[in-house]
Amino acid sequence: MQRLPAIVFLAAAACSTPVAADDSERRARLDYILHCSGCHDMDGSGHPAKGIPSFQNQVGYFAAVPEGRAMLMQVPGLLSSGLSDERSAAVTTWIVRQFSGPSLPADFKPYTTAEARHYRETRPVDITATRNRLYRQIAEAGYPVK
Question: Which of 78, 90, 120 is nearest to 26 (CA)?
Fold first, then answer.
C-alpha cells in the first residue's frame, strides 16, 4: 500500500477546516501551506536564527507602511512560487489577517491583483537589506518588531 505524503493530509485539512470561511480563503490557506509553511511553519513562527522571519504578531506592522506593504509581496518564496498575481494577493492578505494579531492595522485593505502585479514587477534588488531597513524604520516608529 502506498503512503501519501503528510502534506496531502495537511492540505486536505486546510480545505475542510471551519476556520476557512469561503472558497477563496480556503484556497489562500492551502497556498500558504503549500508555498509558505515550509519556511515560515504552519504557525507563522519562521526561523529567525536562519534569516526566515516570524509573522506572529508583527507582520501587520509591515502592512501598515507603504514600502513594507510592497515588500510582503516581494519576498523570494512568493515570487518563485508560481502563483498568479491574484493568488499571491490572496495568500498575502490571508497571512496578514491570520498572523498579525495586535499588529493588524485598523485600516488594513486586502491586496488587489493589480497591486500584486505592480509590487512583483518592481521588487528590490536586495530583499534582505530592504527588510532589515524596514525593521529599523518600523522599530524607530515605536512598533515592537523583533
Answer: 90
